[in-house]
Amino acid sequence: MSSLKPGVEQVMQCSSASGGACDKTDPGHVLRPLQERVTAATPSKWDDGIVASVSGNWIGVALVDVTSTDSGDTVWVWTHAIPAGLAVGQPVALHAVYPTLAFGSERLSVVIAAAV
Fold first, then answer.
1. In whole numbers, what is the pLDDT of the chain averaged over residues?
2. pLDDT in tens, 30-77
3. Looking at the DSSP assignment, which residues form a beta bridge with residue 2?
4. Structurally, what CATH architecture does the domain formed by 8-14+23-115 represent?
5. With contact defined as beta carbons under 8 Å apart, do 86 and 59 qualify?
6. How is the chain split into domains, by residue range?
């Protein structure tokens, strides 16, 4: 995405050996236990959305219940690996304070394009 600030692309590079598990703890790679706890402790900060697009490691989320963001447009988020169960049309939630995407019982650490 062309809206990325210098240095952000390095965050998006996996540090694992080919085929191995990623060991990076940067946003978009691993959801840290503290991040999981603070998102669970702030349920009013989740914005509902629908997966509008999946392209590479980018997910387009069309927000449908905007409570703490400026626009109801599609928000693009990046994550290290798109889970197999995530598909276009699926309901998701995006945390407005801590960059986390929720679908079903899964939580993903993400990089939000508007925030980088």
1. 79
2. 788 888 899 999 999 999 999 999 988 899 999 986 555 555 678 999
3. none
4. Beta Barrel (2.40)
5. yes
6. 8-14+23-115
